[in-house]
């Protein structure tokens, strides 16, 4: 099942990100098994699926952390397979990990300044604008180590944005957050997309959070994308209900 949004090309003709028949095997385990996926400039898509279905491996392939066994990843019209990790990051694909990695002994604003040193010449919001966007202006002179878990996640999001990414890969951005922090994170992600036109791929297990993000979803199982569409479409898919949503939501 493919939803219409997947086929749209960018103005230059080539899709912004195009994953073509991507395979990654670890010995006998095919962690990513002929995955096809297209993402337009500024678009967002959630990747969901049970533990071990290949989501993290897919991110590791896109960022260049792992080489694929076969298939291609085309970014802004060119294959990035074999391109070094740092070059892929410099070209604008930036990953935010589940556990926030801020510098605890530095102030909030110095964390952003440190990250902004690697913006690769692209224009970007100022540290003050980024702090405002993530709601941390009032904390700017606090040591990052004193922030709550949710605030650390938002600070790291601002740090990622300060590098002027074109595509952000968010690995479980709601993990460990309170309900209020999750609601704020959804608002924040929507605002970031409105303000910056950055594209996003989001791995997430929390289905209420996924629903609130209100974007197309790809469902992975055993390394394959088995369903794609909006939240209601995916929810109704019998295979998804049985193998994933049913198990999560009861
Ligand atoms: N470096 C590795 N070496 C061997 N097997 C691996 C390696 N990385 C992942 N795998 C295997 O590949 C499969 C997919 O793992 P992956 O971590 O990508 O899944 P996931 O969907 O991200 O899981 P989770 O939701 O638990 O993070 C699993 O069977 C895993 O054991």
Automatic annotation (TrEMBL):
It comes from the Bacteria. Residues 17-247 form the ABC transporter domain. PROSITE patterns: ABC_TRANSPORTER_2 (PS50893). InterPro entries: AAA+_ATPase, ABC_AA/LPS_Transport, ABC_transporter-like_ATP-bd, BCA_ABC_TP_C, P-loop_NTPase. Signal peptide: none annotated. The keyword Transport applies. Keywords: ATP-binding, Nucleotide-binding, Transport. The keyword Transferase does not apply. Pfam families: ABC_tran, BCA_ABC_TP_C. This is ABC-type branched-subunit amino acid transport system ATPase component.
